[in-house]
Design goal:
The complex is a heterodimer. Chain A is of the alpha/beta class. Chain A has two domains: 70-78 and 347-447, Aspartate Aminotransferase, domain 1, CATH 3.90.1150.10; 83-340, 3-Layer(aba) Sandwich (Aspartate Aminotransferase, domain 2), CATH 3.40.640. Chain A has 14 helices and 15 strands. Chain A has helices at residues 11-21, 50-62, 83-89, 92-95, 107-124, 136-151, 164-173, 193-199, 222-230, 250-253, 315-318, 331-368, 393-401, 432-447, and strands at residues 69-70, 128-129, 155-159, 180-184, 206-211, 234-239, 257-261, 277-281, 294-298, 304-308, 374-375, 384-388, 405-406, 409-410, 421-425. In chain A, the strands form four sheets. A seven-stranded mixed β-sheet of chain A has the order 2-8-7-6-5-3-4, sandwiched between helices. In chain A, helix 3 runs antiparallel to helix 12 (331-368) and helix 5 (107-124) runs parallel beside helix 12 (331-368). Chain A is globular, with a radius of gyration of 25 Å. Chain A starts with 10 loop residues before the first helix and ends with a helix. Chain B is an alpha/beta fold. Helix content of chain B is 36%, strand content 10%. In chain B, the strands form three sheets. Chain B has a seven-stranded mixed β-sheet with strand order 1-7-6-5-4-2-3, sandwiched between helices. Chain B has a three-stranded antiparallel β-sheet with strand order 10-12-11, covered by helices on one side. In chain B, strands 8-9 form a two-stranded antiparallel ribbon. In chain B, helix 2 packs antiparallel against helix 10 (328-364), helix 4 (106-123) runs parallel beside helix 10 (328-364) and helix 5 (135-152) crosses helix 6. Chain B is globular and about 75 Å long. The two termini of chain B are 18 Å apart. Classes of the chains: A alpha/beta, B alpha/beta. Chains A and B meet through helix 1, helix 2, helix 3, helix 4 and helix 5 of A and helix 1, helix 2, helix 3, helix 4 and helix 5 of B. Chain A: This is Probable glycine dehydrogenase (decarboxylating) subunit 1. Chain A: GO terms for molecular function: glycine dehydrogenase (decarboxylating) activity. Chain A: The glycine cleavage system is composed of four proteins: P, T, L and H. In this organism, the P 'protein' is a heterodimer of two subunits.
Chain lengths: 448, 482
């Protein structure tokens, strides 16, 4: 046995242990498995050294095109990540612990997650938050299911401007339930409020909206929120945390449940994960929240400490009557979110949001100056906006990708009659030079 | 320790952001703006670093303490896995979803495809989806696949139930319930597994699926598993395998070979990726051929020329269970783990995980009640019933272990064992570490007889002692007030 495989025993130790157990071979340990059920093949290739493994991983990573300049979002965003995020979240004491079932030896994780919950409450202007969900799309589905539990109704209305992936995940989550999902088709890139009003009645559990929405439009839902709530339905809003440096909060709009994806808060793109989903709500609905929740309390001597609380909602206690099936969530990614927000800080987040908008507005004005290109103007935008090109967007994006620029997300894959529409994302990481290059290359692509 | 918000000084700044190289945009309308900035912490970078470094020191973790938390497989997480995952940090997932975008993502799509192939081989399945983001998310995905299978046969309204043993993980019934099924729970027999006769009585044509963990949460391999599968299939119910305990059987037995139709795999358990204080994990789901048409989209397929493509055109799919392709970074670590350990390494993992659990079981048997005294797989479950006579519960033994520098085993689970103490050492622990732990467990059993109060008072060495959980639940203070 030359390979360690992180199994430390020497052959002599193995013999000692086998004799304590009272058997003579390792094989006897597997005697409870009937011989006719034993694996007949096992085709995993032979192992590699640590060096060879890393080398192979480098080769695989090298098969992706690197150094692409990204003007794409769609739920994941290319933002700066302060160096402290990797270093502090990488502390092994956080990294290699698990769910803090034993609070006395888990105060590090517990206090950090309490601080994380606080940061989400303060960002969204709502009262309570949980200790994270899987991602933004599943958080949106969990919020809809929370509304079903609270209202006892079985109809969800979704604004067609919500991220199509979130809408798809919502449909999958509700696939086998007796729940009706109605989509309100977008009206020029914003919520079609009149169409929505016609659908409101006492059978609706929730209306799901997004701000800024998939087209990039910023909306103030304040007035429609009251009308939705007047029929006893809840309002769920998916929000983009960086934009909350500037934008009106879900709390200020009177929204009941806010959700979103926390990737933009210190988590790398990493081909789609891990990130985290967040959920925040009004205090009255805390018992219907999914997942883990950390609460403050004291010990016998009155010293402050933190515990997993309201566990009576959870699967390990309530089994099939639990409010969700969540066990592992995205704790470490939520910790990264907290470190990110604490590093950027109160003023920094405002500055970062402004930087995003400034860069996007610059790009928008420059791109709109190209002959034949126009901009969707229904609503103001944050760091994403919709362009209408004089030719199909898919071909244009394809041509620019070959030049190392990912120009945006063509809407044709997600919306009917939108062949020429392109959503462009500009974060604070994009330089003026990169934006100018996008403008130049887009002009070339449109002329050819 | 103070909260980070209590250390905050107005005007203090941490990270310096990029300077703008474009003109300032015109202001947004007032109605769209928040009234005041979010009350985030304001700290210098050094104060921030000290805060989180000192917080981290208030945790037990695998890298600092033996962590035999049963059912969670807290094995050592190799550092090279972290380096490997970091290689993929810059890749935007949306690139692959753009028309023609696959061409630019052959590395990442290829890795997901290969991981699926290897997990299929380990579990005996035909295809794997990597979308599910955690074990319980995989369970929900798997049950939805089963629901789609029954719906396609016109049996959606007929199939109402999911059968689970009473020893199952809480996530099993919770996942099935969330997916719209009613639950039938079958009790455990004295031989330590689902009672076969009661199972037969519970089965009927309205059962959609049977969810099992094998080895189960008592750490026992069910010798009747093939018979159970055959009975389930005779009622057109599909067999769901909860892969939480896969660490025990790699290369020894494949769930697919004993009749399971769907499997989820917890990469953060068996495949050595860190648990992160409660995630991220990853819960890829493997299926038999009959369920492939229902898999989530986009599905990664290999064309004849070896090129990886995304398929989005399947009419029977259950849709999408996550935003993109799953927790890719976690999968990169699991992939590196599998190729590094290889065939023999994975077999060695399972053998030594089982060896270690049986060693601890034999050594502690004289001191703690062992309700199911037989060869276990990767974990063993004791009961503190003998200690209860002295007023000492499983939780008190757990707290005593904390004072002695050990993360406690899982306690009070499985629920079918009174005051359960569930120990899963994993294969990465040395005999020396286990021997020391065993001595402390013996000492705890003796202290329970001689001086039970010492156990009831524990822990005494932590920054806090036992916390008032009732107060936390009553006051619901889950966010630091302004």
């Amino acid at each position: 046995m030359n390979d360690s495989n992180y199994c430390p025993h020497t052959p002599q130790e193995i013999q000692e242990m086998l004799s304590v157990i009272g058997i003579s071979s390792m094989e006897e340990l597997f005697a409870p498995i009937p011989s006719e059920l034993r694996a007949k093949t096992f085709n995993i290739p032979p192992g590699l050294s640590e060096f060879e493994t890393y080398d192979k991983m480098k080769t695989i990573a090298g098969e992706n095109s690197s150094d692409m300049v990204n003007f794409i979002g769609g739920g994941f965003y290319d933002h700066v990540i302060p160096a402290v995020v990797d270093h502090l979240s990488g502390r092994a004491e956080f990294y290699t612990a698990y769910t803090p079932y034993q609070p006395e030896c888990s105060q590090g994780t517990l206090q950090a997650l309490f601080e994380y919950q606080t940061s989400i409450c303060r960002l969204t202007g709502l009262d309570v938050a949980n200790a994270s969900l899987y991602d933004g799309a599943t958080a949106c589905a969990e919020a809809a299911m929370m509304a079903l539990r609270i209202t006892g109704r079985n109809r969800i209305i979704v604004d067609g401007c919500v991220n199509p992936f979130s809408r798809q995940v919502l449909k999958t989550y509700l696939y086998n339930l007796d729940v009706e999902i109605i989509e309100v088709p977008p009206l020029d890139g914003v919520l079609h409020q009149e169409a929505l009003k016609l659908l409101l009645n006492d059978e609706v559990a929730a209306v799901v909206v997004q701000n800024p929405n998939f087209f990039g439009s910023i909306e103030d839902f304040s007035s429609i929120v009251g009308q939705i709530q007047s029929v006893g339905a809840l309002v769920v809003a998916s929000v983009y945390p960086i934009s909350l440096g500037l934008l009106k909060t879900p709390g200020e709009m009177g929204i009941d449940i806010a959700v979103g994806d926390g990737q933009c808060l210190g988590n790398p793109l990493s081909f789609g994960g891990p990130s985290f989903g967040f959920i925040a709500a009004k205090k009255a609905s805390i018992r219907n929240m999914p997942g883990r929740i950390i609460g403050e309390t004291v010990d016998k001597k009155g010293r402050r400490g933190y515990v997993l609380t309201l566990q009576a909602r959870e699967q390990h206690i309530k089994r099939h009557k639990a409010t969700s099936n969540i066990c592992s969530n995205q704790g470490l990614c939520a910790l990264r979110g907290l470190i990110f927000l604490s590093s950027v800080g109160k003023e920094g987040l405002v500055e970062m949001a402004r930087l995003n908008r400034d860069k996007a507005e610059y790009a928008k004005a420059r791109l709109a100056g190209i002959a034949g290109v126009s901009v969707l103007q229904t609503a103001p935008t944050f760091n994403e906006f919709t362009l209408f090109l004089p030719k199909p967007a898919e071909a244009v994006v394809g041509a620019l990708m070959k030049k190392g620029i990912v120009a945006g997300v063509p809407l044709s894959s997600y919306f009917a009659d939108s062949e020429n529409a392109l959503v462009v994302t500009v974060t604070e990481k994009r330089t003026k030079k990169e934006i100018d290059l996008l403008v130049k290359e887009l002009e070339v692509a449109l002329c050819s | 320790m103070q909260l980070i918000y209590e250390k905050s000084i107005p005007g203090r700044r941490g990270i310096k952001l990029p300077t703008s190289d474009v003109p300032a945009a015109s202001a947004l309308p007032q109605a769209l703006l928040r009234q005041e900035a979010a009350g985030l912490a304001e700290l210098s970078e050094l104060d921030l670093v000290r805060h989180f470094t000192n917080l981290s020191r208030r945790n037990f973790s695998v890298d600092t303490n033996f962590y035999p938390l049963g059912s969670c497989t807290m094995k050592y997480n190799a550092k090279v896995l972290e380096n490997s995952a970091a290689l993929f940090a810059p890749f935007h997932p949306m690139t692959a979803l753009l028309p023609g975008g696959e061409e630019f993502c052959q590395g990442t799509l290829g890795m997901l495809y290969d991981l699926g192939q290897m997990l299929s081989d380990i579990t005996g399945m035909d295809e794997v989806t990597t979308q599910p983001l955690a074990g319980a998310h995989g369970e929900m995905t798997g049950i939805l696949l089963i629901a789609a299978y029954h719906a396609a046969k016109g049996n959606k309204s007929k199939k109402k139930y999911v059968v689970v043993p009473d020893s199952s993980h809480g996530t099993n019934p919770a996942s099935a319930a969330i997916a719209g099924y009613e639950i039938i729970t079958v009790p455990t027999a004295p031989y330590g597994d689902m009672d076969l006769e009661l199972f037969k009585k519970a089965m009927n044509d309205e059962v959609a699926a049977v969810m099992m963990t094998c080895p189960n949460t008592l750490g026992l391999f069910n010798p009747h598993i093939k018979e159970i599968s055959d009975i389930a299939h005779s009622h057109d119910a599909l067999m769901y395998y909860d892969g939480a305990n896969l660490n025990a059987i790699m290369g020894k037995v494949k769930p697919g070979d004993v009749g399971f139709d769907v499997v989820h795999v917890n990469l953060h358990k068996t495949f050595g990726t860190p648990h992160g204080g409660g995630g991220p994990g990853a819960g890829p789901v493997g299926v038999k051929e009959v369920l492939i048409p229902f898999l989530p989209q986009p599905r990664i397929v290999m064309e004849d020329d070896g090129k990886l493509m995304l398929e989005n055109s399947n009419p029977c799919t259950i849709g999408r269970t996550a935003g993109f392709f799953g927790n890719f970074g976690v999968m990169a670590k699991a992939y590196a783990y599998i190729i590094m350990l290889g065939r023999e390494g994975l077999i060695q993992v399972s053998e030594q995980a089982v060896l270690n659990a049986n060693y601890i079981k034999e050594r502690l048997k004289p001191y703690y009640d062992l309700p199911y005294d037989m060869t276990c797989m990767h974990e063993c479950v004791f009961s503190a019933s003998r200690q209860l006579k002295h007023g000492v519960h499983a939780i008190d033994i757990a707290k005593y272990l904390i004072d002695r520098g050990y993360h406690p085993p899982t306690v009070y689970f499985p629920m079918i064992v009174k005051d359960a103490i569930m120990i899963e050492p994993t294969e990465t622990e040395s005999k020396v570490t286990m021997d020391e732990f065993i001595e402390v467990m013996i000492e705890a059993a003796k202290t329970a007889e001689d001086n039970p109060q010492a156990l009831l008072d524990a822990p005494l060495t932590m920054p806090i002692s036992r916390l008032d959980e009732t107060k936390a639940a009553r006051e619901q203070n889950v966010c630091c007030q302004w």
